[in-house]
Amino acid sequence: MIEVRGVTFSHNGSRETVLREIDFLARGGEITAVLGPNGSGKTTLFQCLLGIWKFQKGDVLFEGESMKHLKRVEIARRISSVPQEHEPPFPYTCFDIVLMGRTAHVDVFSSPGEKDSDLAHEAMEALGIRHLASRPYTRVSGGERQMVLVARCLAQNAPVMLLDEPSAHLDFRNQNLILAKVKQIVRERGLTVIMNLHDPNMALMFSDQVLLLKQGRLIAHGTPDDAITRKNLWDVYGLEVEFLTGSGLRMICPRI
Ligand SMILES: Nc1ncnc2c1ncn2[C@@H]1O[C@H](COP(=O)(O)OP(=O)(O)OP(=O)(O)O)[C@@H](O)[C@H]1O
User: Fold this and answer.
1) What was the ipTM of the complex prediction?
2) Ligand 1 centroid, distance to 34 Cα (angstroms)
3) Domain containing residue 105
4) Residue % of the chain over a pLDDT of 70
């Protein structure tokens, strides 16, 4: 469980407040989706949770304890993440990239051991990408890279996972497969997942809680059905939408 209390953040020397008084609770075994227009502060929120940016006000609690004074390696044992862009400088194999997820658990003077390799293989197996193990990461497709990065997150074995647009670069089938897989793993392992998404339909299908951000403020917050409404989508994106229902599903169609 991770609790965000009144987090407020501005970049050094900037007058613009990127995040204002953000409050929410993300529970284990659940997926929290963060939706909001480009530049609304979604990635910055992740960077604050990961300790990359130091917020000026508020606190982040992991299982009730403040993480404010933890070192990056200590945060990495609690929170793993899939960044939006990842371009390694060297053509590591996909397996090496997944194994890097174990860094937070390996002593500075040691190399990853058998247990670390097993966990990396297991993570690739769970996502159905074992066949990519020996392929250079720089020579697989954007979607395959995304799968490798999610596997790296799983191998890190942290109770909280942050996924920044996990379905970016994925084809229609893989977008759905990866989110269904994440949901299954979240339920099985009781992980707390927070993911940034652009498509509210994906949030309706795969999340348990939705946060809607606009210009660094939390405009709405609740179950997908409560938070994703015509009014809230208009307020946040300035877009008129229709809801279509059928087969037990509720989907959004923009009115353009
Ligand atoms: N290093 C930086 N210095 C100053 N301002 C920054 C910096 N990085 C981001 N910003 C600003 O912070 C705001 C929030 O950016 P952020 O990347 O968190 O948005 P986002 O919601 O993730 O956007 P997107 O959906 O496009 O990925 C933007 O206005 C952006 O211009």
Assistant:
1) 0.97
2) 14
3) 88-156
4) 96
